[in-house]
């Protein structure tokens, strides 16, 4: 049973890590090659698309989506969707999809005369499931070797780790003061004294 417990603990933290990796902002250095609009019929992958744009009708099974085609600094091709997040999740409060599409179109360039940009986005790209990361902003940078320090992620993850540590420390103290004495009275002593508690 000890191994089963740790399997569940590991699975839980893998889910948390996956959720954070999908949701937190990431930065790609890329060259925009094209922008376009395409009608999408939502299917089994609909959870990876944003809600309808602000002011649009609810309950639509398809809608036009903006896309931004790029070539990353390492030569790989990456395609981003460009959708509003509105007041929904994740809380980027993005309402400027059309403006961002215009900015991206203005930054298009060729391999002969490249214009490099930093694309802030969240989400994953998966060809098999036809899911795309959602572009949040586009900013011009000087070249393909620019390093973007993810300050928001560093601060957020540090605060999250501190919160988890604080909750765990208080739980351990509560268990030692309230639960363990009670179980000792009932004769339910810990068979492995001194072991780490979750």
Protein model, in words:
This protein has a domain at 25-148: OB fold (Dihydrolipoamide Acetyltransferase, E2P), CATH 2.40.50. The chain contains 3 helices and 5 strands; from the N terminus they run αβββαββα. It has helices at residues 2-23, 97-106, 151-185, and strands at 26-41, 62-72, 77-82, 116-122, 134-140. It has a 5-stranded antiparallel sheet with strand order 3-2-1-4-5. With 198 residues, it is of the alpha+beta class. Helix content is 34%, strand content 24%. The mean pLDDT is 88. This is DUF1523 domain-containing protein. Keywords: Membrane, Transmembrane, Transmembrane helix. It comes from Roseovarius atlanticus.
Features:
transmembrane, alpha+beta, elongated, OB fold (Dihydrolipoamide Acetyltransferase, E2P), membrane, transmembrane helix, Phage_phiNM3_A0EWY4, 5-stranded antiparallel beta sheet
Describe the structure concisely:
The protein is built from three helices and five strands. The protein is an alpha+beta fold.
Chain-wise SSE layout:
Blueprint (H helix, E strand, L loop, with lengths): L1 H22 L2 E16 L20 E11 L4 E6 L14 H10 L9 E7 L11 E7 L10 H35 L13
Antiparallel strand pairs: 1-2, 1-4, 2-3, 4-5
In this structure, how is the largest beta sheet organized?
Answer: 5 strands, antiparallel
Kindly report the spatial arrangement of strands forming the biggest sheet.
3-2-1-4-5
Contiguous helical run count: 3
Order of helices and strands: HEEEHEEH
Rg from Cα: 23 Å
Oligomer: single chain
- Estimate what percentage of residues fall within beta strands: 15-25%
Structural class category: alpha+beta
User: Helical proportion?
Assistant: 25-40%
Distance between the termini: 15 Å
**CATH T-level fold name of the domain at 25-148:** OB fold (Dihydrolipoamide Acetyltransferase, E2P)
Mean pLDDT: 88
Q: Tell me which CATH architecture of the domain at 25-148 applies here.
A: Beta Barrel
Principal-axis shape equals elongated
Task: Write down how many β-strands occur, each being a DSSP E stretch of 2 or more residues.
Answer: 5
Spans of at least 5 consecutive residues whose pLDDT stays below 50 are none
CATH class of the domain at 25-148: Mainly Beta
Transmembrane segments: 148-167
Keywords: Membrane, Transmembrane, Transmembrane helix
Organism: Roseovarius atlanticus
InterPro entries: Phage_phiNM3_A0EWY4
């Amino acid at each position: 049973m000890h191994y089963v417990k740790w399997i569940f603990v590991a699975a839980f933290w893998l889910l948390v890590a996956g959720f954070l990796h999908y949701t937190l902002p990431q930065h790609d250095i890329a060259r925009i090659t094209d922008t376009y609009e395409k009608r999408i019929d939502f299917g089994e992958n609909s959870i990876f698309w944003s809600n309808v744009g602000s002011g649009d009708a609810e309950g639509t099974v398809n809608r036009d989506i903006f896309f931004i085609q790029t070539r990353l600094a390492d030569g790989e091709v990456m395609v981003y969707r460009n959708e509003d997040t509105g007041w929904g999740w994740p809380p980027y409060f993005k309402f400027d999809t059309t403006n961002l599409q215009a900015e991206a179109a203005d930054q298009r360039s060729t391999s002969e005369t490249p214009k490099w940009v930093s694309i802030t986005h969240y989400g994953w790209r998966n060809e098999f499931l036809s899911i795309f990361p959602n572009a949040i902003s586009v900013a011009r940078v000087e070249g393909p070797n620019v390093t973007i320090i993810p300050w928001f992620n560093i601060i957020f993850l540090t605060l999250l780790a501190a919160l988890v540590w604080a909750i765990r420390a208080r739980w351990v103290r509560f268990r030692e003061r309230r639960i363990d004495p009670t179980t000792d009275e009932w004769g339910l002593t810990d068979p492995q004294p001194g072991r780490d508690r979750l």
